[in-house]
Amino acid sequence: MSSVKHFVQGGDFLIEEITAESVFTPEDCTDEHRMIAGTARQFISREIHPYMKRLEEGDFPFVAEKMKKAGELGLLGHSVPEKYGGLGLDKMSKGIVGEALGNASGYSVAHSNHTCIATLPITYFGTKQQKEKYLPKLASGEYLGAYCLTEPEAGSDALAAQTTAVLNESETHYILNGTKIYITNASFADTFIVYAKVDSRHFTAFIVEKDFPGLSIGPEESKMGIKGSSTCSVSMEDCEVPIENVIGEIGKGHLIALNVLNLGRFNLGFATLGAAKYSFQLALEHSTERKQFKKSISEFGATKEKVAQMAARLYATESLLYRTAGHVESALGEHEDSSDFKAVAKAMNEHALESAICKIVGSETLDYVVDEALQLHGGAGFIKEYPVEMAYRDSRINRIFEGTNEINRLLIPGAFFKKVAKDFLDTRTIVERAQHSLHNGVFKKQTGELSELKQALALFKDLHLVCAGLAFFKYGTSVKNEQETLMKLADLAIAIYSTESVILRTEKASERNHKQKLAYTYVEQTALEVQHAVIPMLSELLVGEERTKTLGQVSLLLAAYHWPDSVERKRKIADFYSEQKRYQS
Amino acid sequence: MNIFVLLKRTFDTEEKIAINNGRIEDDGAEYIINPYDEYAVEEAINIRDEHGGEVTVVTIGDEDAEKQLRTALAMGADQAVLINTEDDLEEGDQFTTVKILEAFFDDREADIILAGNVAIDEASGQVGPRLAERLNMSCVTTITSITIDGDTANIERDVEGDVEKVETSLPLLVTCQQGLNEPRYPSLPGIMKAKKKPLEELEIDDLDLEEDDVEPKTKTIEIFLPPEKQAGKVLEGEMDDQVKELVSLLKTEAKVL
Ligand SMILES: Cc1cc2nc3c(=O)[nH]c(=O)nc-3n(C[C@H](O)[C@H](O)[C@H](O)COP(=O)(O)OP(=O)(O)OC[C@H]3O[C@@H](n4cnc5c(N)ncnc54)[C@H](O)[C@@H]3O)c2cc1C
Ligand SMILES: Cc1cc2nc3c(=O)[nH]c(=O)nc-3n(C[C@H](O)[C@H](O)[C@H](O)COP(=O)(O)OP(=O)(O)OC[C@H]3O[C@@H](n4cnc5c(N)ncnc54)[C@H](O)[C@@H]3O)c2cc1C
């Protein structure tokens, strides 16, 4: 639909300067993108929102029926190639649909689970026969899908799966034994992507149909939120799976499992953004209606600061998600119907780091926004009659599934160190350059528009390189065991990616006035977060006088990214939203 | 069957509207297909699906109206025509619109033309009936149901909440009222197909019209927003006293009696 010209490699942003031309922004969306979003939003407001009570009561046949209806509208087939009954749209469209569908509690989870992790293994790794057999039905909604990776003893450590697959004597079927837990869509799914170890060793993906002998579905879990999505265990007892239902190669299941999760995380970021915008809207509606002390809640400075900060985070999340969509599209766009297993896996893995950031930032922005939205409701927020109560409970799962946010954070510096090694980058030179920049203020040499913000970004990047380098010099390759440091490096990388996305988008936009306010507010907040990550890290990595001196200097450098108009600016932002009563930028 | 729909791009009255220098502020306003015209598009598609033929959606406006035409194409219309008046006309009124449409239909065979009952922006409700008059066609306004059998159309129309049943014949112009149908929203395949459907752009000289021919007959003196809603007043006391107070307030404060 739209081409992304500049290919940016995964993790590049941590080492290089990225230019505005190489990022996709929400403002770059085409008319078709906007129409697609409109259709997805209308679907939710007409077909799902009037029935939230049925979702909350766990009416799963209703959910399945609505997914089929979504299929008729093409909302299940956006990422399936045209030749297999889908639309073969770009990754921006995938994100746009994910976002527009994201504010519908368990329905959103059921829908995304189907279009992403339950369909993509076949889309990208299936044989021609598998694609012909399953994709048209998954795209139309005739078949609904589930994805079975987690086991009682294999959650975060997914590759520790104990489910086994053994070839039968006539070599026609694999016999699967084992139990998967917490499987979304299990109660009504027609197809299950199941991971099992062939001969207890070779991790492999299979397509299992609901009627294959030996497959059974456990009872529904009773959950805290997203009650409209079905979650059950799936057991295989001598379950017979024809050999032609192996996806990809025997022993290469991990590449499918993990790479599909990359796209799942990317999509989850969008879904949580949609949910967060909805919570923000609830906060605006309530705080402008409700009066205390003869004033609307929205008129109090404390509220205004909350609203401005929520808005700035939404802006940043949105900026980095659409940017990632552009990157992923540029890497993966051509591989839609490729049969080169390795090339596809590589392309899907290219932006693993960025996809992890999408997932973390999306889910944490949602948690933050929904928490503040509930708080602004006062006592009403605690009462079920108000939709924010449900939104609050629905939010929490997002930090857990598709890889916990800790697992996703660990992945970020891991990918960075791998990139440095793979690109034969000279760590010492990079770190020395960053150190030199910090000492001599080279990072301040930014010109043109938004240069103050660009300085902050350059500073964050230098700090990240210095910390990563010091950690590497101190711990060597066993840095991978230093989780306390890794988590903070991840936080720094997230701060850099989001800040950069905000700046580049603002720079690229034609209507810049309001966006610029959001950008300044975001950078101010992020400078504090960077300090939060960097100070404890440097304190650990340095010793003696150098330690004391550096801690002081860094604090001083970061303090420069607060501006005198902060309060005034945030009040203006808040007033804008109290007027609009919804998120827009 | 040759089915035509008259469609107008309007701002979304559900959204906030700001007025600046006697004009509606363009920035920030959201634009939509006039909701009554959406009923017309939906009904046109249904008529085509039942009786065959083609649905052509026509709008008068500027380039931006292409979006609303594409939406109609994505819903299922077959082709669209944009009569672009951006370079030729400063102002226009219902006379202008009807004059242009009359010229447009001059060399076209329309079996049925569907329009909205009113456009929510100017709410004149005139374009449909005036055009029918100029084209010498039967006209039924505010329809809530239509069935076509050969050349005969059986119509139910809304008359201030009551239903009137009308039998008439094609060619016919109808204006659509809420309740006629539930407009579909475009499917994703529909959206992708719409890109490839024909969208013809005309200017008034393509219709052999000069600017003078379509000069508006009315002038807009002023545009203003309705006054902000004031807080209500709850009357208290005995019923008789309340009635008396109400009457006196209606006389002295509201000045409606
Ligand atoms: C509602 C719901 C739906 C789900 N749907 C699906 C589905 O459709 N398909 C599917 O396969 N799975 C699904 N899951 C499972 C989900 O992906 C897992 O729950 C998740 O991956 C975490 O695994 P776990 O629950 O075993 O937690 P654990 O792995 O036991 O983690 C517990 C805690 O330890 C931390 N931790 C674990 N390992 C490390 C480490 N190495 N370093 C630091 N900290 C660590 C985690 O971050 C977490 O905080 C679903 C779960 C839920 C609740
Ligand atoms: C489960 C439950 C049990 C309860 N039990 C009792 C009970 O036993 N007895 C009883 O009397 N009450 C009880 N309450 C009521 C409770 O104390 C109130 O809900 C609480 O004081 C908040 O008031 P509110 O709900 O009207 O929120 P609001 O006052 O409307 O507050 C909404 C938001 O506006 C903010 N806000 C309000 N005023 C200002 C200001 N001036 N400046 C800045 N921000 C402002 C608030 O911090 C909040 O975020 C209960 C409530 C619940 C939910």
From TrEMBL, chain A:
Occurrences of domain Acyl-CoA dehydrogenase/oxidase C-terminal (ranges): 251-412
Molecular function per GO: acyl-CoA dehydrogenase activity; flavin adenine dinucleotide binding
Domain Acyl-CoA dehydrogenase-like C-terminal: 461-544
Stored Pfam families: Acyl-CoA-dh_C, Acyl-CoA_dh_1, Acyl-CoA_dh_M, Acyl-CoA_dh_N
Keyword Methyltransferase: no
InterPro entries given in the database record: Acyl-CoA-dh-like_C, Acyl-CoA_DH_CS, Acyl-CoA_Oxase/DH_mid-dom, Acyl-CoA_Oxase/DH_mid-dom_sf, AcylCo_DH-like_C, AcylCo_DH/oxidase_C, AcylCoA_DH/ox_N, AcylCoA_DH/ox_N_sf
UniProt cofactor(s): FAD
Acyl-CoA oxidase/dehydrogenase middle domain span: 146-239
Catalysed transformations (reactions): a 2,3-saturated acyl-CoA + A = a 2,3-dehydroacyl-CoA + AH2
Domain of life where this protein originates: Bacteria
Domain Acyl-CoA dehydrogenase/oxidase N-terminal, residue spans: 30-142
Protein keywords: FAD, Flavoprotein, Oxidoreductase
SUPFAM superfamilies (UniProt xref): Acyl-CoA dehydrogenase C-terminal domain-like (SSF47203), Acyl-CoA dehydrogenase NM domain-like (SSF56645)
Keyword Lyase found: no
Family label: Belongs to the acyl-CoA dehydrogenase family.
Protein name (Swiss-Prot/TrEMBL): Acyl-CoA dehydrogenase family protein
Source species: Halobacillus locisalis
From TrEMBL, chain B:
Gene Ontology CC annotation, any one: cytosol
Classification via InterPro entries: ET-Flavoprotein_bsu_CS, ETF_a/b_N, ETF_b, ETF_beta_N, Rossmann-like_a/b/a_fold
Cofactor(s) needed: AMP
Gene Ontology BP terms: carboxylic acid catabolic process
Keywords for this protein: Electron transport, Transport
Protein name: Electron transfer flavoprotein subunit beta
PROSITE patterns: ETF_BETA
Domain Electron transfer flavoprotein alpha/beta-subunit N-terminal: 21-211
Native source species: Halobacillus locisalis
Molecular function per GO: electron transfer activity
SUPFAM superfamilies: Adenine nucleotide alpha hydrolases-like
Function of the molecule: The electron transfer flavoprotein serves as a specific electron acceptor for other dehydrogenases. It transfers the electrons to the main respiratory chain via ETF-ubiquinone oxidoreductase (ETF dehydrogenase).
UniProt similarity note: Belongs to the ETF beta-subunit/FixA family.
One Pfam family hit: ETF
Quaternary assembly: Heterodimer of an alpha and a beta subunit.
Signal peptide start-end: none
